[in-house]
Amino acid sequence: MKKDKETRIGKKIKLDTKIKTGIIAGLIILIGILGLGYIQELKKENTVEEEKKLYEYTYNTDVKYAVNLIENELYEENKLGEDQIYLSEFIKSINNHFTVSFTGSEESEISGQYKIEAQVAGYTTKKQEDKEIKQDIWSKSFELVPVQNFKGKGTSYEIQKTAEVNYKSYNEFAKSIIEATKVNAPAELRIKVIGQMDIQTSYELIERPIEISTIMPLDGAYFTITVQGEETVEDSIKENVTVTLPPDQKTRVLYLVGIGITVLVAVLILGFTTAPTAEDKRIKEIKQLLTHYGSRMVGVKTIEDEGYDKYYEVKSLEDLVKIADELEQPLLYENNRDMLSIQKFYVIDRGSVYSYQLEKGGRSKKTIAAENGETSPTETANWEHLDL
């Protein structure tokens, strides 16, 4: 009993030799493809172009202003701050405080120059690309601070300068020009800082223009002050570098897992399958016959094929099926648990017996019996061969 159990456990799967060879060949090809892919993955360098910041900096321009007043009955204080409306008759002077600063990530040489001037201009406006722009009709500049050169070294540099202007004198100048030219166009006073800052880094030269100003209308009873050119610029010097990415371990693992599974399948097929024996093939053949002709066949415990008047042995099962259909009789076979014992099929009609003997290895049972010196059932019962 124990031995039978072990035999059942260790029983190999039957697999046709051609099919087995084809599967193994396919698995070998698949292993080769996966192995080649894995080798290519090992050799492959994954790179990407990245932008690397070599030098970072912040450039900032700022303007602060304050309006100094003459003594008057309206204001108690003698100075007004930013973003207010200023009455022209009460103004004594205007302080303009300009700041230009630079901060870099590394030490660099900083140099440049600047000047401050007051510009009085009469202008007109025109539309350009849906915007109103000013076009000067006349203008005159007055030097407030002559050209100033500066130079320094470090990670930061700052310029601070204050220019105080007499609003009343520039207002009277504008009125005189308007009266002299008879051109009644709006006029304004522009306090301008003009220059450039150069930053020589270890990578390249950075050039930043300095253009900031305060603007106040002239020839009016009151006005507001606007500022132009204030900005904070955060920028950097960059370069594109090729970065090698770390190996794609996930892809490599997938290749190895695929190879491992394929090898395992090949080993299982080689170790746990075997070619079907002649008996296996015969059992398969019998099962196919029973399945194909199942509606015509009847399995019985025993068949008595003696005592009949006529005995006929046909050449094929198809011929026996024809006879069964013609006589309207079923095909009989001895039903046995041992599938190999099913060797012969019968059609019995009154005093006649028609049979078909399955061949074994291309030989009939009669031929096998003759070779063994035995008397076959066919000879004993005087079987006749029937050709249809």
Largest sheet: 8 strands, antiparallel
Give me the oligomer status.
single chain
- Elements, N to C (H/E): HEHEEEEEHEEEEEHEHEEHEEEHHE
pLDDT < 50 stretches = 1-9, 361-382
Distance from N terminus to C terminus (CA atoms, Å) equals 50 Å
Q: If helices are DSSP runs of H or I spanning 4 or more residues, what is the number of helices?
A: 8
The shape, in one word, is rod-shaped
Structural class: alpha+beta
| Overall tally of domains | 3
Radius of gyration: 56 Å
Q: Total strand count, please? A: 18
Average pLDDT works out at: 86
**Which percent bin holds the helix content?**
25-40%
Please report which band the strand proportion falls in: under 5%, 5-15%, 15-25%, 25-35%, 35-45% or over 45%.
Answer: over 45%
Give a quick summary of the entry.
The chain crosses the membrane at residues 21-39, 253-275. The protein is 29% helix and 46% strand.
What does this structure look like?
By secondary structure, this protein is an alpha+beta fold. The protein has three domains: 11-45 and 246-274; 53-242; 278-386, no CATH class. Helices cover 29% and strands 46% of the residues. The chain is built from eight helices and 18 strands. It has helices at residues 2-9, 17-43, 167-181, 249-272, 278-292, 317-327, 365-371, 377-380; strands spanning 13-14, 47-69, 79-80, 86-87, 91-128, 131-165, 187-200, 205-218, 222-223, 226-228, 231-244, 273-274, 297-300, 310-314, 331-334, 344-349, 352-357, 384-386. The strands form five sheets. Strands 2, 3, 5, 6, 7, 8, 10 and 11 form an eight-stranded antiparallel β-sheet that branches. Strands 16-17-14-18 form a four-stranded mixed β-sheet, with helices on one face. It has a two-stranded parallel ribbon with strand order 1-12. Helix 2 (17-43) runs antiparallel to helix 4.
